[in-house]
Amino acid sequence: MKTKILFPIFILLITGFTSFSQLPPVFGPEYKKIAQKDELTRVFISPVRIMWTSDETGELVKNPDVLLKPGNSQSDMSRVTQFCAIKSTETDTSSILLDYGKELHGGLQLVMGGSSRREPSLVRIRFGESVGEANSTTYNSDWLMGFSTDDHAKRDIVMEIPRSGLIEIGNTGFRFVRIDLLQPNTTINLKEARAILRYRDIPYLGSFKSSNPRLDSIWITGAYTTHLNMQEFLWDGIKRDRLVWLGDFHPELKTITKVFGYNEVVPKSLDLACEQYPLPNWMNGMSSYSMWYLIIHHDWYMQNADLDFLKKHKNYIVGLIDLMDSKIAEDGSEELSRFRFLDWPSTPNTEGVEAGYRALLVWALSDAKTLCDILDEKKSAQTCLSAIKKLNKNIKDHNDLKQAAALMAVAGILNPKKACNDVIAVDGAKRFSTFYGLYMLDALSMAGRYQDALDIASDYWGGMLDMGATTFWEDFNIEWKENSARLDEFTPEGMNDIHGDFGDYCYPSYRHSFCHGWSSGVTAWLTENVLGIKVIDPGCKTLKIEPHLGNLKWVEGTFPTPMGVVKVKHIKQPDGEIKTEVDAPEGVKII
């Protein structure tokens, strides 16, 4: 085994049409009806490190460092150009493992420089979010329908590649790529093996910097996690499930509003969700995700005050309120659906899930009431109040479930201090979850326990960074760190593979998504509670600035509004007082 680390080289090249006006003249006007511009940008990134080659002699894999150089996507058969030559024998394949340094969404472009065969050559391409995954075979679980590691996006591909020219492979989430030459007695010459990053080319208008670089890394990692999932629609994961899930949507929405402000992926995805799940269907087939739909609309309107968009969804919102109310009895019992889902880690605690589910319903109806007031739907607003009153006749016990206690605090049916003292703050980051961690942090803030929240954020989300994460994961338990190797390392004998040895439910082992948008909520929390920027009036017309620095010496950052970017800086003085500087655009009132 041979490992070589070189100085990172990121080569970026933007390609593709930018508008229909650039289509060749041979395409007449009628093509505008069937052609669609790619909304996203393609960028090529050279690998930053040769992780490993299968050849210890240097004879079967020659000049691998060539692949780290800048490329131009042009095949070359000249004698002056150096290639990475990969050779197989009668009995042995040859392999190379490449590290692109960051989690990416897209595929791989191979640029060829000839081969020993006139025919195509057979290779195996494996994409991985971790070193372990890139070296693994396809994993099939026996959970429910027998899910595979590549049933949403193909990550293990056996295919023929051309002798010269180029070929592009794959569309998934990855950081590592392994290439195996399977054709016996063959030599292929690789000129380039560049990752294709496919993303929305949009500015990061929000920012966060502090006296603690670890928190800064957490903020930007959460922002990037959601950014990668802002594809044609807002996905929950770039490897899987690559779908618009309304629960996963909410933490992503919170992050988008703090980092990017307005982006069309949000209304576009909400429109799609209503088309896919018309009433009386529940969003994604889950009643709790229809609750999140109402909360999302509330938070989106508070950020942008887009009344036309809200009116567009009025009939669905009002119909959903009526549907929910029709299933709530006078004694507070309800029969929305049998399936009560919060997040996967909470699933075994059925009593706690019941309490959290009902709290989520109260929260959703409360936000829906605000929406009805804006829409002047007085009858529906009253329906929301009546439904909440009925539900609060029958408040369930959280059963020591942190997710449930957090929702109950946010919904106003459990004192936040009691929720935190009894459940949420107990054992610190243990029993936190990537999805509901945002609401646990929110509950800690409501209880005034900002330093505890900062410590947990550092331990929990920072714990993923400690294990090599460049995006945040679908699930994480702080205990997984014990005796585990980082995702960007080979797992030594006797240690755990942080990717392959963990995961549960529908995401066991390498099926576990290492870029999942619902885990990004910590970014929004840092902006709202540490930088201290909260929206008071719709459209950000009034912002409340109330920083909570804990043990930080200073923090500064920016926040996007429809009127422009707000700049804030807080410096802790020797006497403990905080000096604040705010630069806000015209039209934004600061409290």
Q: What does it look like?
A:
- The chain has 591 residues and is of the alpha+beta class.
- It folds into three domains: 2-199, Galactose-binding domain-like (Jelly Rolls, Sandwich); 205-261 and 450-591, Sandwich (Maltose phosphorylase, domain 3), CATH 2.60.420.10; 277-414, no CATH class.
- The protein has 14 helices and 20 strands.
- Strands 1, 2, 3, 4, 5, 6, 7, 8, 9, 10 and 11 form an eleven-stranded antiparallel β-sheet that branches.
- The chain starts with a strand and ends with a strand.
- The relative contact order is 0.11.
- The model is unreliable at 1-19 (pLDDT under 50).
- Residues 532-589 form the Alpha-L-rhamnosidase C-terminal domain.
Main beta sheet strand tally, sense and closure:
11 strands, antiparallel
Number of helices: 14
Strand segment tally:
20
Uncertain parts: 1-19
Count of separate structural domains: 3
Mean pLDDT metric: 93
Rounded to the nearest angstrom, the radius of gyration is: 26 Å
Give the structural class: alpha+beta
Helix content: 25-40%
**Morphology:** globular
CATH architecture of the largest domain: Sandwich
Percentage of residues in strands: 15-25%
Topology (elements, then pairings):
Elements: E1 2-5, E2 14-15, E3 41-45, E4 49-53, E5 61-62, E6 84-87, E7 94-115, E8 121-128, H1 131-134, E9 156-161, E10 166-181, E11 187-199, E12 207-210, H2 213-229, H3 246-259, H4 265-276, H5 287-304, H6 307-312, H7 314-325, H8 350-375, H9 378-391, H10 402-410, H11 416-424, H12 437-446, H13 450-466, E13 484-485, E14 496-497, H14 521-530, E15 533-537, E16 542-545, E17 554-561, E18 564-572, E19 578-583, E20 589-590
Parallel strand pairs: 13-14, 16-20
Antiparallel strand pairs: 1-4, 2-3, 3-11, 4-7, 5-6, 6-11, 7-10, 7-11, 8-9, 8-10, 12-17, 15-16, 17-18, 18-19
